[in-house]
Specification:
The structure is a homodimer of 241-residue chains. In chain A, 33% of the residues lie in helices and 22% in strands. The longest helix of chain A has 14 residues. Chains A, B: Its cofactor is Mg(2+).
Amino acid sequence: MKKNIEVCFSPELIHLHDINDKIVVVVDIFRATSTMITALGNGVSSITPVADLETCRSMKAEGYLIAGERNGQPADGFLLGNSPLAYLDNAFAGQKIAMTTTNGTLAIEKSKSGAKAILIGAFINLSATAQYLKTQNADILIHCAGWKGKFNLEDSLYAGALVSTLAQDFSISCDGAIAMKSLYETTKTNLPGFLAQASHAKRLQNHNIEADIDFCLQLDQYMIIGKLIGQELVAQSIETE
Amino acid sequence: MKKNIEVCFSPELIHLHDINDKIVVVVDIFRATSTMITALGNGVSSITPVADLETCRSMKAEGYLIAGERNGQPADGFLLGNSPLAYLDNAFAGQKIAMTTTNGTLAIEKSKSGAKAILIGAFINLSATAQYLKTQNADILIHCAGWKGKFNLEDSLYAGALVSTLAQDFSISCDGAIAMKSLYETTKTNLPGFLAQASHAKRLQNHNIEADIDFCLQLDQYMIIGKLIGQELVAQSIETE
């Protein structure tokens, strides 16, 4: 019997899903999980997701580099905002990061109860995540961080991309997964163009970070997965076939 | 400036939307709102949506025909279930109906606070609803009844159909509307085939009501809108151009 794959569009709906024994893939494309994968792919030793700004700030004294963002803007007093580009060229390799973001860390927190494992996903490591999931004996729940509780286009399209990639190996067990698989398959040849309509992409464009958007929509830049071990996200390499 | 149109995928998310002064279009394609439009299109004088079975049952003594369904099955002791076909050929013309359904009546209830007006929508009166909305000076919120709080495909595709029909006249103000407009436009030539994958369609097929499904997916059988006036849904005719 095939394993199941399902999609939850928002942390506001996660209570309707049974997380127990599932692998939860948390996604916040613009930009938390894309940034996390970039950081891990560029050698940071771990990322600790933190719910609030104050706790995150206090971790500086413990030797963490602190990264914080609210409403798409870097937070006051933080070394790093939420741009994936800041981590390129192994800029912070070997360091521990503490990171708090508007929606992403909340979604990770809400994914914990009973999950077999929690991954973070992004377009930039889509194939690695898919390859890993195929080898695991568990149902999958893709948990979209959304925007302040609402459905958002980029996270949902990532869900569609992952479902599409895994469609041969998994049974699609909810309407959200069916809808987004189909939408991804018809828009994937021009994902940036389609997503330019999205509300959050427009917000980000207002902050002059088109380069971040373009970066986050690339496929398969990193052949690692991002996995929560204890309180820390760490990288695991995936062997290319 | 154009009026706005937005989509809410579930009553579980309606608290994130500002209903105030908007026209809310409630949709529960399989089958509450399709059945209501069919009944109104076949001459019933009014439909009173009722949240619970007991209240609905008690209204029989007040002269209402009572219609009730739970989990896709007719409820015990009710004359009518939730099949639109039962109302064809003016079978209950001139009568008052009290109706309770799993998801549809809840969505109507949750749409009331501050709305300028509440309509019920279905594929079978898509053009009539669109035509009416164009003439009104109000933003629109399409409220999908969903399935036990989750996104469902048929209600969301109706939302996409209505957004697609109104795209020239309204500004699309949320990602859910963008997603479903696109999905509807790529699936509309084979809506029944695409929806056959949907979880609720599968449930209904198990109840041997394929005829209901086919009926609910037809476009524009009735040139009326269904509008809540006080506690009653009533029909208003739309002049064809």
